[in-house]
Amino acid sequence: MLLTLDLNDPRPLHEQIAEAVRRAIALGDVRPGDRLPPARDLAAALGVNTNTALRALRELRDEGVLEFRRGRGVSVLRAPEPREVLRDRVTALLEEAERYGYRVDEVIEIVRELAEAKEGRR
């Protein structure tokens, strides 16, 4: 499982990690029943504190996406709802757009333009 963080993203690192894990599961890179690396290994790979990685994993456990088992590690319990994944991505988009000075209605217009262009290609 290859995860990356955006150090320019103003969201807390644990939120970015949780979103990246959700996305990996939603894309099928990690499936229900698969084990995740220990928080220590995940933190080392991402260059963050172990507690930061653990906080992200606990958040996903609380959502019912992951399961912690003593002696067996962390495993994927279920795929997140597609709407959850999409909401996370839209939230990140709106936050980034705000940093560039775009209003929500302007972002919606950009999405409409892209959707219309995509429909025109079909």
Written overview of the protein:
The chain is mainly α and 122 residues long. It has 2 domains: 13-76, Arc Repressor Mutant, subunit A; 82-121, no CATH class. It has 5 helices and 3 strands, in the order αβααββαα. It has helices spanning 13-26, 39-46, 50-62, 82-99, 104-121, and strands at residues 35-36, 66-69, 73-76. A 3-stranded antiparallel β-sheet has the order 1-3-2. Strand 2 (66-69) and strand 3 form a beta hairpin. Helix 1 (13-26) crosses helix 3 (50-62) and helix 1 (13-26) packs across helix 4 (82-99). The longest helix has 18 residues, at 82-99. The radius of gyration is 17 Å and the shape is globular. The model has no long low-confidence stretch (mean pLDDT 91). This is GntR family transcriptional regulator. Residues 11-79 form the HTH gntR-type domain.
